[in-house]
Amino acid sequence: MKLKPNAFTAALGRGDKLIGLWITLCSNFVADVTAPAGYDWALVDMEHSPNDYQSVLGQLQAYAASDTTAIVRVEWNDTVAVKRLLDLGAPGILFPMIQSVEEAEQAIAATRYPPRGVRGVAGATRATKFGRITDYVARVEDQTTVLLQLETLAAVEQAEAIATVDGVNGIFFGPGDIAADIGKVGKPMDPEVWALIKPAAQKLIARGIPVGTLVLDPAFASELLNEGFTFVACGTDASLLAKASDHLLATVKSGLG
Fold first, then answer.
1. Which value, to the nearest 10 degrees, does the dihedral of the CA atoms of residues 212, 218, 220, 221 take?
2. CATH of the domain at 147
3. Has 48 been annotated as catalytic?
4. Is the alpha carbon torsion for 247, 251, 254, 257 positive or negative?
């Protein structure tokens, strides 16, 4: 049995416009609901949600049956956590709060077997279909998507150096934390935030490096994709449910006599 190609990794390399959805509700049933929608990628979040390995496993299983690639945001740049997620079969990892070239190199090393990295070796894992995938070790590095998240002014200023570390598939700009870092906490759409992100992103785009982000404004998501961003998430499961719930209640109340 051979390792299945990672469609998301390939699409990043081609520079396709990839639309994503943020998944935070820690439910394989929610993953089942969203998987047939047709998003190119879904981000299963462990940093800002109560996900654990069991809940992530259920969500990976749900997305595996669809054309949506599930990327997992690990809680931190932690070698052990990355090892466990890769053994679970996560097609890609988003590393939060990367601040330097050294931290980028540490992240990459966590996804590589020795001598290129420090990932521990296990045989009968979900990632290898319990030992049945015969070319896993030879091909997994090329197929696993590794994304690094920049979330501070200092990190944005080092974007080019971080992005060119060998093994990086894309750079993700975190507008919420960048906003907080420059004194604009709670204002991820502030013009000053994007005045920092967009020029840095364009430098990477000019070098052929995929860039992405999360925004909750669909029109702005389209704008970013049209400007050269490669992978943009345009909503979260929790915000969609909250907004739809509020809208439904308000609509019914507005029709009452």
1. 20
2. 3.20.20.60
3. yes
4. negative
Question: Would residue 1 count as lying in a domain?
Answer: no
Of the pLDDT bands very low, low, confident and very high (cuts 50, 70, 90), residue 74 is: very high
Which of 48, 207, 243, 247 is flagged as catalytic? 48
Q: Shortest CA distance to 24 belongs to which of 14, 15, 16, 34?
A: 34
The predicted structure's pLDDT at residue 183: 98
Give percent of the chain with pLDDT exceeding 90: 100
3-class DSSP assignment, residue 152: coil
Contact between 152 and 162 under an 8 Å Cβ cutoff? The reply is no
Distance CA 104, CA 118 (A): 14
Largest CA distance in the chain: 72
Residue 105: count of CB within 10 angstroms of its CB: 16
Residues 11-31, mean pLDDT to the nearest whole number: 98
Give CA–CA dist 68/47, Å, rounded.
21
pTM of the predicted structure, to 2 decimals: 0.97
Residue 130 burial by Cβ neighbours in a 10 Å radius (0-12, 13-18, 19+): exposed
Read off the DSSP letter of residue 185: T
Contact 183, 177 (CB under 8 A): no
Residue 28 in domain: yes
Range of the domain at 63: 7-254
Q: What is the mean pLDDT of the chain?
A: 98
- Average pLDDT on 91-119 reads 98
Inside any domain, residue 2? no
Looking at the structure of the chain, the number of domains it has is 1
CB 5 within 8 A of CB 219: no
**198 within domain boundaries:** yes
Contact in structure between 2 and 135 (CB atoms under 8 Å): yes
